[in-house]
Design brief:
Two copies of one chain form a homodimer. Chain A has about 190 residues and is an alpha+beta fold. Helix content of chain A is about 35%, strand content about 30%. Chain A has helices at about 1-5, 15-25, 85-110, 155-170, 170-180, and strands at about 10, 10-15, 30-45, 45-50, 55, 60, 70, 115-125, 145-150, 180-185. In chain A, a hairpin with a 2-residue loop joins strand 3 (about 30-45) and strand 4. The mean pLDDT of chain A is about 95. Chains A and B meet through strand 2, helix 2, strand 3, strand 4 and strand 7 of A and strand 2, helix 2, strand 3, strand 4 and strand 7 of B.
């Protein structure tokens, strides 16, 4: 029982974690992943993504049992009827989720038990960019602030180090801060 | 009736759209928006964002009636139990949703009725970056491909022009392709 508790830290099976790391170290091609989303427009600002299949660890995944659906919308002031968070809010969620999971995994690897992780994110924008009213402001957020509240069985300096390490390893933090090339194709028939 | 059908195009109230554009043109300060998300860790790779309040058009929003919740997780191979799409998949959803809404709004403004908008997104990554196994690969996607299928009452060239305009105005496309500064703060007590 004590042994099982030691293996599972922060809800992460650390034995499985070390096994995964060793397997990818031994065969780096297992690190190649492709994630996917399929989106379809419903009406106005309402659209929906379905998410299931991905490629990773040398094969198409066959473990996911159900398809996730995520809806997007806009509030009234941006011409929608609140069918879901808007795309910019979904991006903030993706960033919060990635930093949080990175922090939880890093803490598990470094033998720190976390008891609480919360974060509040704010993104500022001038919608004149996206509405085509000004070429002097950008379309997207000019800046994003993330404020974490973290508790666990480690001193504040250690928790700070874990948050820094999470930033240094987060997939979405890298994408959002550094940008990624996006290719857009179109079929009309 | 005919008039109402002309006003509502692609589910977008174009009269309200022109009214919004005129109001922001007349008072550019109305273009200042701030979007927010609050996230809390549940267990392992499972965390949840709640999204409601935002600032825009000169005031704190008071129109949204309910709070949205969005869950994140990881599949088994990445040490989770599939409690939701993973953060990278959520980012693909945010990008798909934003490009789609931008396209729908641009089409409404340019008097094109759309009948179908679908998109498939793929993002490639080498997870050795995020797992801390290699400093030679980045943490995030190396590239993202978006493939749209669009139908409507306009010739293919016109639909292509609308998709290009949607890219040129999309909030999340801007963020993901160009990057945004992210500031991370931490409270430990």
């Amino acid at each position: 029982m004590t042994q099982l508790i030691d293996v599972i830290r922060n809800g992460v099976n650390t034995e499985q974690m070390y096994g995964t790391l060793d397997a990818i170290k031994a065969d780096p091609s297992l690190g190649t992943f492709q994630f996917r989303a399929h989106n379809h427009w419903i009406d106005g600002a309402h659209n929906r993504s379905t998410i299931k299949a991905f490629y990773g660890a040398g094969q198409e995944d066959s473990t996911r049992e159900s398809t996730f659906t995520v809806d997007a919308g806009e509030p009234a002031v941006l011409l929608g009827v609140d069918t879901g968070p808007n795309p910019a809010e979904h991006l903030l969620h993706a960033l919060a989720a990635c930093l949080t999971t990175s922090l939880v995994y890093v803490a598990a690897a470094r033998k720190v038990r976390l008891t609480e992780v919360e974060s509040t994110l704010e993104g500022d924008m001038d919608v004149r960019g996206a509405l085509g009213l000004s070429d002097e402001v950008r379309n997207g957020f000019t800046n994003i602030r993330v404020n974490f509240k973290v508790k666990g069985d480690a001193p504040p300096e250690k928790l700070r180090e874990l948050v820094e390490r999470a930033q240094a390893r987060s997939v979405v933090f890298d994408i959002v801060t550094n940008g990624v090339p996006v290719e857009v194709g179109l079929a009309t028939a």
